[in-house]
Amino acid sequence: MKKHPILIKIGKIMIIFATLVGVATLTIAIHPQIAVGQIQKLMYQKHPVNTYSPLHQPSEGMTDSGLYKITDRKYAIKYPNSYLDITYPSKNMNGKYPTLFYFHGGGFFGGSKDMGDPMAANESTAMLDDLCKAGFTIVNVDYALVPDYHFPVPLIQANQAFAWASKHADTYHLDMQHVIIMGSSAGAIMASQLGSVITNGKYAKQVGITPTLSREQVKAIVIDDAPLDYDTFPFACKLLIGNYVKGTTFLSEEDKTRYNNILHLNGAYPPSFLLGSEYRVDMNEMHDALDKAGVTNELVDPLKEEGKKMPHCFVAEERSDPIAKAAFQKIIDFLNKTTMEKS
Q: Is the CB of residue 327 less than 8 Å from the CB of residue 314?
């Protein structure tokens, strides 16, 4: 039977289209910054992604929400974006409040201490205000982004921020004996890994960090929806994390093992509060590993508990969503419990 020429032409077009899509996908998989870079250009326009100057003039004073805030203190000089803000529950900075270090999300290509995570259920800065009002001094830390900097540079910077805070604890009235480490999304990855850096010498050596905080200082870690188990990620997440770790989605087993600190948990890991929504599989995996290691931890998984699928980093919606509000209150209760003994 003679094939219709139009069908032959359509078939050839489909083959060419499929080939082009395949080549484009493979190219992006090998060089994810091609795609990530376009997103950065849209986000940042002519503004720098990484800078050695503060984005705003450093300031100090009361905020519209009734908190006292000191902005854009430089905590180190080696890497860009090495600035942090400190927010106190009141102008009376002499009050003894646990110090909560917060690391924003943004896929390691965007976001900041000012805007939070552009890809998450936002209002993270409002959530930080509410955490502060609940009785915590908030140290909100910026860090360097791709394409210029990769893993583990943000962890190195976090460690530098801890060192700066310890050195200037008296000046800025920071209780460095009752420290909480918290992060959302990319920042949650950092918080999770920092817990292992502080409690597992072998892991700290693998990532090339000598921790400046002791396990005794760190009273709790809050991990808000961290993707950690690389092999379980959807393609879009592999683009972001692969780009951050090595500039490609084709990571070696050694790369993945160094990145996934679930594989490095031990019984010394600090008490942990986990929130799982988009990356609930990872958070359930970490919850099970912490249970096995005998570490105090609590997991909030709305899909399992409420049968409701929540957006990435949903707790940031705690002012408007009842499930997020309940999760936020559980965080406060957990932190009060883990810090009250010697606070």
A: yes
